[in-house]
Amino acid sequence: xxxxxxxxxxxxxxxxxxxxxxxxxxxxxxxxxxxxxxxxxxxxxxxxxxxxxxxxxxxxxxxxxxxxxxxxxxxxxxxxxxxxxxxxxxxxxxxxxxxxxxxxxxxxxxxxxxxxxxxxxxxxxxxxxxxxxxxxxxxxxxxxxxxxxxxxxxxxxxxxxxxxxxxxxxxxxxxxxxxxxxxxxxxxxxxxxxxxx
Length: 197
Prior knowledge:
35% of the residues lie in helices and 17% in strands. It is built from seven helices and six strands. It has a six-stranded parallel beta sheet, with helices on both faces.
């Protein structure tokens, strides 16, 4: 495969990956603008305790790729941010990526909640103006008109499942069969993740 020119960074904790993550990747693959989509598990953040190790989250991202998107070479799993100093800061990751891959045009996938929260991030106002952003919109989310922002309406049937809700359900010994794929569920059970009781 030739070197990518346009790469979409789909970052997140992947703690664990849910069927919503899978649906978003599938929707992004339907776009023609991107040569590759990098699933990039984030490092420890000041506002979030992961509950699973870097390697476990990375492995779950690989499971998502291999079991759901094995036939599409555009989907890649990257440990780039996991190798950077902690705590994770998006501006540091963006700068480090551009330094490491100067010929690549990077795009960043964000939901509207993250986009509107960006001014509270370190150097977030600048990021909001300068990053190439693919903005996921749900339902009646308002339009963002900026030259660096491309909006994508997520499928109306996309289940709004968060990793936080999955972890909470597991802690209460509740069923998560409808929230994560069977290979991810098997990995969680095999490694006894997110069970504090």
